[in-house]
């Protein structure tokens, strides 16, 4: 019979805290940027227009062996806000297709614009 090491209480264990800190440190070292025109890293926080389903419905992992068990998930929007960025796009950031033919005022007032590709698992 398999042994499970998952937490059995609502408290965050020392092991979980250690691993969360390590994952956060490694995440920055493991990212791959295919092309950079000098925009990144950003000089500092500013105004940002963000679009796409992944902004507020960020996928933390894949399915099967790509899935990740975690107590919390920080969305891209939350991460940007916590880093001091002002999000100029409202609740409809994920519904840009529903705004066909309308220009977004958020993009024209922003310091930079980001579109997050991805889909939402509804299973």
C-alpha-based Rg, rounded: 18 Å
Structural class: alpha/beta
End-to-end separation: 29 Å
The coarse overall form would be elongated
Q: Quaternary arrangement of the chains shown?
A: single chain
Query: What is the beta-strand fraction?
Result: 5-15%
Main sheet: which strands, in order across? 2-1-3
The number of distinct helices, counting runs of at least 4 residues, comes to 3
Low-confidence stretches: 93-101
Estimate the mean pLDDT confidence: 76
Summarize the structure.
By secondary structure, this protein is an alpha/beta fold. It has helices spanning 14-30, 76-82, 105-109; strands spanning 47-51, 86-87, 112-115.
Summarize the structure in words.
- By secondary structure, this protein is of the alpha/beta class.
- Helix content is 24%, strand content 9%.
- The chain contains 3 helices and 3 strands.
- It has helices at 14-30, 76-82, 105-109, and strands spanning 47-51, 86-87, 112-115.
- A 3-stranded parallel sheet has the order 2-1-3.
- The chain is elongated and about 60 Å long.
- Residues 93-101 have low confidence and may be disordered.
List the helices and strands and how they pair.
Elements: H1 14-30, E1 47-51, H2 76-82, E2 86-87, H3 105-109, E3 112-115
Parallel strand pairs: 1-2, 1-3
Q: What attributes does this structure have?
A:
single chain; 123 residues; alpha/beta; three-stranded parallel β-sheet; 3 strands; 9% strand
């Amino acid at each position: 019979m398999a042994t499970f090491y998952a937490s059995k209480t609502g408290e965050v264990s020392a092991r979980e805290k250690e691993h969360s800190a390590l994952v956060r440190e490694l995440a920055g070292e493991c990212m791959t940027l295919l092309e950079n025109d000098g925009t990144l890293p950003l000089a500092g926080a500013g105004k940002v227009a963000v679009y796409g389903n992944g902004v507020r419905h960020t996928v933390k992992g894949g399915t099967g062996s790509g899935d990740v068990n975690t107590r919390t998930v920080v969305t891209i929007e939350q991460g940007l806000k916590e880093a001091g960025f002002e999000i100029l796009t409202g609740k409809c950031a994920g519904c840009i297709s529903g705004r066909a033919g309308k220009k977004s005022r958020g993009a024209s007032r922003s310091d930079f614009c980001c579109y997050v590709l991805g889909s939402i698992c509804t299973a």
